[in-house]
Specification:
69% helix, mainly alpha, elongated
């Protein structure tokens, strides 16, 4: 059982993984951003980190206000949010150096293109 106020535990891992995911998603799906942001890797990284930190702050504010759920705000939770964002920098840098970023971006662009250009036909069910 996790000790109250611990630096480790499932909750901290969840904060880390969710913020790592937010960072990578925002960074890869920057294709929705204006060209000045989309074509600048440093700006994309900064925007991804800002969104990640904003999500962590918002989660702790919601814990504090207990608006949607009953939680306790925690500096340690927020620290793990920041660690997740920083890990996102590392993962994205590794992908960039390995030249995987263009591949993942092209996959993301193709997927979004397919989703937005769907020709949906409504058929009556017999």
């Amino acid at each position: 059982m996790e000790e109250e106020g611990s630096w480790t535990g499932v909750d901290k891992l969840e904060h880390f993984v969710v913020c790592l995911g937010i960072f990578l998603i925002v960074c890869q799906f920057g294709i929705f951003a204006p060209a000045s942001l989309r074509n600048s890797r440093p700006k994309r990284l900064l925007a991804a980190f800002a969104v990640t930190i904003f999500a962590g702050i918002l989660k702790e504010i919601l814990d504090w206000t207990q608006w949607f759920w009953y939680g306790d705000p925690s500096v340690k939770d927020f620290a793990w949010d920041v660690f997740g964002g920083l890990a996102g920098f590392g993962v994205e840098s590794m992908l960039h150096r390995m030249q995987w970023e263009p591949i993942t971006r092209s996959i993301a662009q193709e997927w979004i293109g397919r989703c937005t250009n769907l020709d949906v036909h409504h058929h009556a069910i017999d």
